[in-house]
Design a protein that fits this description.
Bound molecules: guanosine-5'-triphosphate, magnesium ion
Distance between the termini: 18 Å
CATH topology of one domain: Rossmann fold
Strand order of the largest sheet: 6-5-7-4-8-9-10-11
Strand content: 15-25%
CATH architecture of one domain: 3-Layer(aba) Sandwich
CATH class of one domain: Alpha Beta
Number of strands: 11
Mean pLDDT: 86
């Protein structure tokens, strides 16, 4: 097997390069951000390549239309099974058709890259705090702990704060995680206090802020959240569990986007088989897809999202041989 790495501005461009240089049989081995977090660096492999591998081969001829139609039909079925809204599915399929890639995973990855933005938390500016918001019970507190655990493993200083001080047990829940990670948890009652606390922190430390679950359809509830989001001046991430109704998810995403959410962290991916609500939500709120949580365990299980990983999650039948494989292999 021979490996070759391609750098391009977008995932679609990178995949076109792979196809042009290595042909249809190339396998995508890994995808990463390019240097300085810009663009895409994609490594592809080809089985049994000849020694002339590095000399660009002739672009492979386009496959017969019937085969391409099969790919698009397959993707159309898959998106419909996931409950992706018809207008969004149509946009994605149009993009996949334009790309003209036969491999369903790569075709879907290209369409995802075209229609959505991806920005994992690790690619965010390290100097800004991360504030997690969302409806009750979506996994905000556990995700705060996961982000902190990941930073702690990388030996990065971490600050943990919570504004969830009214609800019985809100503070204590994060404190339990804080104790495990040996990080003190700050209890924040007012936006003024949040501003003061943040101004006293080291700039090289990662600050993660947990908030109380809020009802997006209650102006009073959301009114409480707004000053905290403004005071944090951070990267505001909506946390949303997989497996909900797509139309509900879209309304929730739109509401939280109005309050400053610009990224989507997906949770409980291990408990859902239909992921359409997440795509519909990301589109409705113009949210960048950031990370996905696939377990209730604190350490590990928060995985950066990219178009290929998302495509694999959406097409588990093509990825998995056994039931547990799709989640693991989507990030391999
Ligand atoms: N299996 C699984 N469970 C998860 C995942 N993420 C969160 N959970 C569970 O979902 C439940 C709610 O998680 P929390 O972190 O308390 O949710 P929250 O959004 O902070 O809830 P509130 O503070 O009440 O708004 C807990 O039982 C978590 O263990 C996940 O990715 N997989
Ligand atoms: Mg919580």
């Amino acid at each position: 097997m021979r490996l070759k790495t391609f750098n391009a501005r977008t995932m679609s461009e990178a995949m076109k390069m792979v196809r042009d240089h290595l042909g249809e049989d190339a396998i995508i081995v890994s995808t990463q951000r390019g240097e300085g977090g810009k663009g895409v660096r994609l490594t592809a492999a080809l089985d049994g390549a000849d020694p002339e591998f590095d000399a660009a081969p002739e672009p492979s001829p386009l496959k017969p239309p019937a085969k391409k139609r099969d790919t698009i039909e397959y993707l159309s079925d898959a998106l419909s099974r996931h409950g992706v809204a018809p207008n969004l599915a149509e946009r994605m399929l149009r993009s996949a058709t334009t790309l003209g890639i036969d491999d369903p995973i790569l075709a879907l990855a290209g369409a995802l890259d075209d229609v959505f933005s991806f920005q994992p938390i690790n690619d965010l500016k390290p100097t800004k705090p991360i504030i997690l918001i969302g409806p009750p019970g979506q996994g905000k507190t556990l995700t705060v702990a996961k982000i902190a655990a990941r930073a702690a493993i990388a030996r990065r200083p971490v600050h943990l704060l919570t504004t969830d001080t009214e609800r019985a047990g809100g503070f204590e829940q994060l404190q339990v995680f804080g104790k495990v990670l040996k990080v003190e948890v700050g209890r924040i009652d007012t936006s003024q206090r949040l501003k003061e606390t943040l101004s006293g922190y080291r700039k090289d430390a990662l600050t993660v802020i947990d908030t109380a679950g809020r009802n997006p359809f209650s102006p009073d509830d959301m009114g409480i959240l707004r000053p905290f989001v403004q005071a944090a001046q951070g990267d505001t991430c909506l946390v949303m569990a997989a497996g909900t109704d797509p139309l509900e998810a879209a309304e929730v995403a739109r509401a939280f986007a109005e309050f400053g959410a610009s990224r989507l962290i997906i949770t409980r991916l291990d408990l859902a088989r239909r992921l359409g609500s997440l795509l519909v939500a990301a589109e409705a709120g113009r949210l960048k897809l950031a990370d996905a949580s696939v377990t209730s365990a604190v350490v590990d299980g928060l995985n950066p999202l990219n178009p290929v990983a998302m495509a694999r999650l959406l097409l588990p039948d093509l990825v998995a041989e056994e039931a547990a494989a799709p989640l693991k292999r989507a990030y391999s």
